[in-house]
Amino acid sequence: MLNIKINGQSIQAEAGKTVLQVAKEHDVHVPTLCYHKDLNPTGNCRMCIVEVKGGRFLQAACVTPIWEGMEIETSSEKVMKDRKLTLELMLANHPVDCMTCDVAGECELQDLAYEYKAEVPAWGAKGTRYKADSDPNPFIRVDMNKCILCRRCESACAEIQGRNVWGVAKRGFDETMVTGAGVPMLEARCESCGQCVAYCPTGALSNKMNYGMARAHQVKKVTTTCSYCGVGCQFDLLVKNNKVIGVSSNPNAPVNGMALCVKGRYAYDYIHHPERVKKPHVRRYLLEGNAKPIVNRKSEIQNPKWDWVETEWDVALDIVAKKFGELRKDFGADSIGLLTSAKCTNEENYLMNKLARQVVGTNNIDHCARL
Amino acid sequence: MSNSMDDVAKHAQTFFIIGSNTTEQHPVFGTMIRRAVKYRGAKLIVADPRKIDITEIATLHLRQRPGTDIALINGLMYIILEKGWEDKTFIDERCENFDEFKATVMEYPPEKVAEITNIPVEQLYETAEIIATSKPTAVIWAMGITQHIVGVRNVMDLANLQMLLGNMGVPGGGVNPLRGQNNVQGACDMGGLPNVFPAYQPVTNPEVIEKYGTAWGLKVEGLKGEGENLQPATFQLSNRIGMTVTEMMPGILEGKTKLLYILGEDPVMSDPDTKHIRHCLEELDFLLLQEIFPSETSVYADVLLPGVTFAEKTGTFTNTERRVQIVRQAIPTQGDARNDWWITAEIAKRVLNIRMKDEGGRMNENAPYASWNYKDASAIMDEINALVPSYGGVTHTRLEAGERLQWPCPTKDHPGTPILHTKQFTRGKGKFMPIDHISPAEKPDDDYPMLMSTGRVIYHWHGGQMTRRAKGIMEVYGEALIEVNPDDAIKIGINGKTHIRVTSRRGMIEAKAWVTDRVPPGMIYANFHFPAASANELTHAALDPTAKIPEYKITAVKVELA
Predict the structure, then answer these.
(1) What are the extents of the domains in chain A?
(2) Predicted structure pTM score
């Protein structure tokens, strides 16, 4: 254990930890921007700078390990002034369009500018430098004007997704994030998992599907479990006006943390697709009490007795139950088969099993586990 | 999975992936493996005929001839035994039947295995050394292992391998099948199988029949304790093993199956030999389908009832590592659609009424779980807690409180079980099974000279009912692509043309070719996401004799220009 002081308070901390880690453990607020707990620290945004006694420069807390006898000031006048200047330099080069920006309200740059009362300096860059919405990826909206070069996208892609799609190009004022060698994302072998979006602290990377649909505070988040594969990722469904308008990572998800795949994060719009079945459908012959017409694809078009009729639940359910009863009586319980669903819940599957066994009296129940 | 995903991601020294396209089909687990390999230095062996995405970071990629997995696994075990790398203590203390098993393995020397599998002898030695010396090794597989007529034998042989190496019951090891669907594990756990009640309690076991019969208010031979004024129940459970999906369908043509109630499935897209499935459904007396969309199957439905998506329901899903997780309703049910559990319960109540009237039959309505009056999903879970031993302690209350539970979790204070078989196997001793290689059911011949394997792609989901209705997904992957090796592309004469015609003994599809060395020469790979070109028009219903799983991974086909 090492003995250090943060803002005059004596602290014992484990060797090898960074100033930022120790500060966080002791509830000392140090602002961060490029740092994220899931990613390796890169120390390039300079927001977490602190003053270390005897040091020649301000140190980035996220990459500075503690040492014995270290004395740290996290909010001295010098530190605060320097942080504000850092923010102003970022804003000088950032469109101040928070009024229309999709991520306002959950933008870390906006929060820090507010906290430090940083404004766009008079000498700030005029106009935008990059095309907004510059990438054809259907899920991810890229606006490099809003990039602060924190490089979280690069780290998230490399360290979480293991894909290394994002990188840095050019130098100095022209430095910018690129995918592949400056090609569109999908050509750079992007899997559209959206990890870069989830970690982007600004509106440089946002979600295209719900762009402009809701601000953070207008959205209700409901944590649930994904319905695609068997990994069992959890995430938050973003709900506005009783509609699912998006999916966002939930850092507390047991299996996946912030990580999701393209289907989990972006293939949700089927939920409100106009083709959803919204009423019970019964073939006309059943309502008219006729015999079942011969069914094949052609007769479906030709035979009006095979038309769908939308009915009330009681009508449809009574027809169904009557058929169960009739066929069971005429051909025995084992003439009935149930295919339950690997997409439905345990509770629903349990009931299908109970219906087959208790109500019908057959073990003819299976699902697509084999398929 | 015998182990958990984060366990193998953290502790496996070697991953042996055989028959799983992990980064595309279980993408988030795939990224965990990528991280373990790239940043933790774990070794990765991928055995797959296709050069799937994850092979790019593999220590070794074995491209076995499709349908030769047993020969490969036996060959590896031969080398392990030859070099003395087996875990003798584990074999002595926890396993049985080793000698008989060993005799079979000894019939698979590397040279012979190389001939069967087309994997060079040196690669076999290299692989055996890596998996046997960089332990623990986690074996990971999916449908590439199971969708064969030898599916069960493949799985048993992988279990042999892990017992031989003593990789069972340890962190970072285990046998780890990746379940495809979000709740295929739960559907199996909940008795959605023809041979078992929930928690794999056999339907033929009199004690289990008595347990469920009593709980559900049915007639049970010699049942004690029923109220004296009550008439005994007459309805009873069947003790005959039921039909699997792959038996129910042909059962229609044999007059065995008259009514099917299908919940959220699309057999026309997902079952083998589509033409045959269509014919079966045409002949069916009554098809009840509960779905969110009109599907390829709803064409044949007599009644279509609107169920809801996961965003509209509350309940639980069980993932591939037996983790039970809560699903929360986020939006109201759409239109007049209803919760799927409500629909099933309404049908059950009405059918029971009809049976009571028609048969003059009775149930014991005082039985604790005879009724179908559920207030909500958590009330159903209460019944599951009482009747399904491995889910005994998995309550909605605990899950809502943030507890992380993997079954078996028998009691309300049990913490769940991340790793199975740590002290002993379910049957006591692990039994080594002698497994011999058997050739696939349909081999390429003069008429159908190429081999087709089927599966999914990263962007789409199974029959495609959901993902084909996702706009962005369709922009990225909007039509079926069939993978064709460049050598074959030259032979077929693709040369700038785009579409090919693939014919099997059962059907024909036309689709765009994707010329790529992901597939080896002589093999194509097709998916079943698009009705216009579904691979299942071509596949056949050759089944594993035990699991009744179709051999999707091997179909003989002819490929020509469209």
Answers:
(1) 2-75, 128-272, 277-320, 332-371
(2) 0.94
